[in-house]
Amino acid sequence: KNYDLSAEYYFEPAGLVSLGAFRKDLRDFIYSDNSQLVGSGSNNGFEAEYEGYRLTTQLNGGTARLQGYEFNYQQQMKFKTLPRWAQGFGLYGNYTYLKTEGDYGTAASALAANASKELAGFVPRTANLGVSWLGRGWDVRVQAIKRGHYLTTNSTNAALIRYSLDRVTWNLKLRRIFTERYVLLLEVESILAEPYRKENFMSENSNLPQFTGNISPRWVGGLQGRF
């Protein structure tokens, strides 16, 4: 069941401000569990092999609720007082706050002792901020994306609970418009190859990550045609 409420205001010369609130009530939601280990003996389900291996599976939880609000802002710089070249610039940004709570069924009481009942995979705070320029056959956009600290893996075992740390990535999008039919595209994601880190629940407020890594920039290019 979804409940949504939003208000939008459009202003001159070309802009939009909106504010929305939402709530989603879920039942039998799916989550990942990796708290079980393969046992020993011929009755371990794997013909006595894989003893000590960790099992990762998906289970159905009970009920869950997601609620929050989102703010959005867009404006094209069409002011008459600006030079003509500056009127091609635009600003846009949005912010989302999300709060989740779920009943994990039979594991609910054990999970509550180690972590909150928040749902794994949902980011409580996200924000985007971008600058665009359109003119002379070019459409250029630079965007920063902020993802806040969030739970990635929940478990009845405190040592297996994982959080992903805050991360900011920068993206670039270029479009060269030759005609109404042909457009040359180039997109670069994670320009600065920002590192990502995940930490253990026990070190949630420390600087001791459970593991860290880098994602190289992703380049996508192409020619778009309309016929």
Major β-sheet, in short? 9 strands, antiparallel
Mean pLDDT: 85
> How much is the radius of gyration in Å?
23 Å
- The helix-and-strand class reads mainly beta
The oligomeric status of these chains comes to single chain
Strand content: over 45%
Q: Rough shape? A: elongated
Strands across the major sheet, in which order?
A: 1-2-5-6-7-8-11-12-15
Give a quick summary of the entry:
The chain has 227 residues and is mainly beta. It has one helix at residues 108-114; strands at residues 2-11, 15-27, 30-37, 54-60, 63-76, 89-102, 125-135, 138-147, 150-153, 162-164, 167-177, 182-189, 195-200, 211-214, 218-225.
Task: Describe, in plain words, how this protein is organized in 3D.
By secondary structure, this protein is mainly β. Helix content is 3%, strand content 58%. The protein contains one helix and 15 strands, in the order ββββββαβββββββββ. The strands form three sheets. It has a nine-stranded antiparallel β-sheet with strand order 1-2-5-6-7-8-11-12-15, with no helix packed on it. It is elongated and about 80 Å long. The model has no long low-confidence stretch (mean pLDDT 85).
Key terms:
227 residues; nine-stranded antiparallel beta sheet; four-stranded antiparallel beta sheet; 58% strand
Task: Please outline the helices and strands.
Layout: E1 2-11, E2 15-27, E3 30-37, E4 54-60, E5 63-76, E6 89-102, H1 108-114, E7 125-135, E8 138-147, E9 150-153, E10 162-164, E11 167-177, E12 182-189, E13 195-200, E14 211-214, E15 218-225
